[in-house]
Design goal:
about 850 residues, about 50% helix, alpha+beta, 4 domains
Length: about 850
């Protein structure tokens, strides 16, 4: 009696906006006793009336809504946990991927007016692009009226220190390089113009990372000399820690180029330099490109035999920096977006299912006078509580997963140091949270226009029907999106399988590789270098388990690039720039046997020929032979490299083709010369060791053997050949792993969605199922009823997903190898898999339908 009085009093005197909260709480806890009810009623009246007089009712009411929403969610822990986990994983994964995509593709480069920075390339005869020769870049830079500054960059891998040597990656650059980018050293000074000359260019600038790691951050190193490659180099300055080296992400040290027009490697045909330029203010890319094309055409007319075609390519530095990774990153970003959409659909589905169960509660509130805005505000509060919890979980997921993701990204990815969880990522989570709260409030709120006189049961059935249509639509969308992700993941998996099945041209099993240097004053001539190579080879060959040792200047699939144009000496072309290129391999006589590269015709080198510098010989791959001498026997043919004046070499054998740049490359042209027949001995060589056992286990012994010859020489890039190949496919592997994870998450969410809709449908159709059973429906017919409903949802989703997959997979074309984006076997296989998964999701709801007792179902609905 007292409880009813308290409830009636509060309903009468309190504002309608908050009465239902207070009354609802009291009704739910009235078992705590009469005195408790009286105390709570008195406290509520005093507190809420005071609150009304303070004029901030909207804020306080909304806070009350939030507290009420929190209590409501505590009473449905399974629903709350499922929602928060789903949102946390989906939004967290999206934030992690966004943290990578944002600095690499979206955010402006960290240089002044970065939109004015461009790369300039020479155009090749097939419409592609190539590096520039020094004389070409110099003439363009001096004659152009559209660029403010320019610089050229060449690769450099020096060895630091006489003791405890360390091999580092760096660049040789024009003295204007940092000025072109618009940055300057934090300590010391920039390069000077008079240092960019032959003999005066022993000057370097260090990265902050190298300065800290190698020199302990000692500022006194600036202005002093350090040992590099056995020479003394003057340290001019140290770049700031914030310097983001987009042009060469792995470079840690820069040396002045020091080229002169008279040097043979500064020629127009020596395409080993990259050119970067800063446009003048107000100059557009098309205007600069048109001027460069005109200037280049003049150079071609003046030197027609030194250019393959007319024209230049200008590309914004922002676009060029991420060119190799753009397709993969955009594809991954698209995939995680699909997962986020599926997760949102699933969360909304959970909300709709819960709303159906609460429909009687909503109907009572409407009958008691609660307006549509009042109910929507309460749902908004509940959605906000859930979304905020999901946002906190997603921030934790992103914080944990981002470092793991970064550790697996390619080290040459530009702006790698700028990838971290920052304000932009947090803002993305915040926008997602607020958007989700609104979406859940609006969609789950539905229509609240029932007349108060409408029966609660009728209102419940009407709302449940509307929500069932919405939930079914969302499930169809989930299945279609999951279909698209599964198709993409399967295509990439099939592509990687085909890629790894490509014949590399050599036997990878049991191969250990490493790079060995011979630098310092003692290695200042060919004889000393060759002697060091021979002693290293003999020491390693003597190790137990070693069956072969070879030396080469570059490693297949190792990321090395050293190619020359190959000129038929007996039929030279009018323009030497039009001849085919071939990868230059300077090798020991046992290299081919160690790698097990087959000799298809002719013979291999002999030790005597390696020592003979008068009769120059070479081996060529079958692909190069077919390109230079089509339809002819290449044995005995003669060719030149290094231009029309290069020495003539005679072909004594033809080798099998080797994949050099990548497993997916179309060209595989190589030529091999004995190491002692090349004009200059290579200080840096690749040692390949074939073993009987696990090659990785032999690495420490090989290191010790080399150290026994000269402990001051660095040994780096130690890897088995299988690891080298794995690195060459790292981008495809990473994309596959992420796509597979996203696809698995999408399928699980889609299954949960189908299950949820069918389970809710069984609960809502209990009376119908009971009536059917009472009228003689067999168990098979009941199961067919549920399977038919799930089948319709699954089929609709699969059909839409097929159409979406066909449209989406064309964007994956650059990531695929030997697989069509619309591969029929993949499309049909994924469709069949999803069909089976759909049926599996129907099993438990179908079993529940079979367990419906007709008499109880009819009685409960009477």
């Amino acid at each position: 009696m007292i409880a009813r009085f308290c409830i009636a009093l509060l309903e009468r005197i309190l504002p309608a906006a908050i009465a239902d909260h207070v009354v609802g709480d009291l009704v739910e806890q009235q078992q705590r006793g009469t005195w408790w009810m009286l105390r709570q009623t008195s406290s509520a009246v005093i507190h809420l009336r005071d609150h009304a007089h303070h004029g901030d009712g909207i804020v306080r009411t909304f806070l009350s809504d939030m507290r009420f929403a929190t209590r409501q969610l505590r009473r449905a822990p399974a629903f709350a946990i499922a929602t928060v986990v789903t949102l946390g994983l989906a939004i967290g994964a999206t934030a992690s991927i966004f943290s990578v995509v944002d600095p690499v593709l979206l955010r402006p480069l960290p240089y002044p007016t970065p939109d004015r920075l461009v790369f300039a390339w020479e155009r090749t005869r097939d419409g592609g692009r190539d590096n520039v020769g020094f004389l070409t870049a110099q003439e363009l830079g001096e004659r152009s009226s559209t660029i403010e500054r320019w610089a050229v960059i060449g690769s450099w891998e020096p060895t630091l220190g006489d003791t405890d040597p360390e091999r580092v990656r760096g660049d040789r650059v024009s003295w204007t390089y940092f000025r072109t980018l618009g940055v300057q050293p934090a300590i010391g000074r920039d390069f000077l113009a008079d240092e960019d000359q032959p003999g005066k260019n022993l000057v370097v600038i260090l990265s902050h990372r190298l300065w800290m790691r190698r020199f302990g951050g000692d500022s006194s190193i600036v202005g002093h000399a350090i040992a590099i490659n056995g020479n003394q180099y003057h340290v001019a300055g140290v770049m700031p820690a914030s310097f983001d080296n987009v042009v060469s992400p792995t470079a840690e040290i820069w040396r002045v180029l020091g080229y002169a027009a008279t040097q043979p490697f500064a020629c127009r045909t020596c395409h080993h330099l990259r050119m970067v330029a800063r446009l003048k203010p107000g100059v557009s890319e098309p205007a600069a490109r048109a001027e460069f094309d005109g200037l280049h055409a003049q150079m071609v007319r003046a030197s027609p035999k030194e250019y393959a075609s007319v024209g230049m390519s200008l590309v914004r530095l922002q676009d060029e920096a991420a060119r190799s990774f753009r397709s993969a990153l955009l594809a991954i970003a698209g995939a995680v977006t699909l997962v986020l959409l599926i997760a949102v659909a699933n969360v909304v589905n959970l909300q709709l299912a819960r709303a159906v169960r609460r429909e009687e509660e909503f109907a009572i509130r409407v009958a008691l006078g609660a307006g549509r805005w009042r109910l929507t505000r309460q749902l908004l509060a509940e959605g906000l509580v859930l979304a905020m919890a999901g946002g906190i979980a997603s921030a934790f997921v992103a914080w944990i997963s981002l470092p793991l993701l970064v550790s697996h990204l390619p080290q040459n990815l530009p702006r790698l140091a700028a990838i971290h969880f920052d304000f932009a990522s947090a803002s993305l989570i915040g926008v997602a949270v607020l958007s989700l709260a609104v979406v859940m409030a609006v969609i789950t709120g539905g229509r609240r226009d029932s007349e108060p006189g409408t029966s609660l049961r009728a209102a419940k059935r009407l709302a449940a029907g509307r929500r069932h249509v919405t939930r079914s639509t969302l499930v169809v969308a989930e299945v279609s999106l999951a279909m698209m992700l599964l198709v993409s993941a399967n295509l990439m998996a099939k592509s990687l399988v085909h890629l790894l099945a490509v014949d590399t041209g050599f036997n990878t099993a049991g191969l250990l590789t490493m790079e060995v240097d011979a630098v310092g004053a003692r290695y200042n001539d060919n004889a000393a270098i060759f002697s060091f190579h021979d002693r290293v080879r003999d020491a390693v060959r003597a190790l137990p388990g070693v069956v072969g040792v070879g030396i080469t200047n570059q490693l297949p699939l190792g990321g090395d690039f050293d190619a020359y144009g190959v000129i038929d000496a007996d039929n030279p072309p009018a323009n030497p720039e039009l001849v085919p290129n071939g990868d230059r391999y300077v090798v020991s006589t046992d290299y081919l046997a160690t790698m097990r590269i087959p000799i298809l015709a002719g013979r291999a080198f002999t030790a005597a020929e390696n020592r003979d510098s008068t009769t120059l010989i070479a081996l060529v791959s079958a692909a190069l032979a077919a390109r230079v001498w089509p339809g002819e026997n290449p044995i005995g043919k003669r060719f030149r490299v290094g231009g029309p004046e290069g020495p003539i070499r005679t072909v004594i054998g033809v080798t099998g083709n080797v994949k050099h740049s990548g497993l997916d490359e179309m060209t595989d042209r190589q030529w091999y010369v004995p190491e002692r027949q090349w004009v200059q001995a290579d200080n840096q060589i690749i040692l390949v060791v074939r073993t009987k056992a696990d090659p990785a286990s032999l690495a420490p012994s090989v290191r010790r053997a080399i150290a026994s010859i000269d402990a001051a020489q660095p040994v780096i890039r130690i890897a088995t050949m299988d690891q080298v190949i794995a690195r060459s496919t790292a981008q495809q592997r990473l994309a596959l792993v992420l796509f597979a994870a996203f696809a698995l998450a999408a399928v699980l969410l889609a299954v949960a969605g189908i299950y949820g809709v069918l389970a809710g449908s069984v609960a809502e159709r209990t009376r119908e199922i009971g009536l059917r059973s009472a009228l003689g429906a067999t168990p098979t017919e009941i199961v067919a009823l549920i399977l038919r409903q799930g089948g319709v949802l699954g089929t609709a989703g699969i059909m839409l997903g097929l159409a979406g997959a066909v449209g989406m997979t064309r964007y994956l074309r650059t990531l695929l190898f030997d697989v069509a984006p619309t591969d029929p076997a993949t499309l049909l296989g994924v469709a069949g898999t999803l069909a089976v998964v759909t049926v599996a999701a129907c099993v438990i709801p179908a079993i529940r339908a079979l367990r419906v007792d007709p008499s109880q179902a009819l009685r409960s609905e009477a």
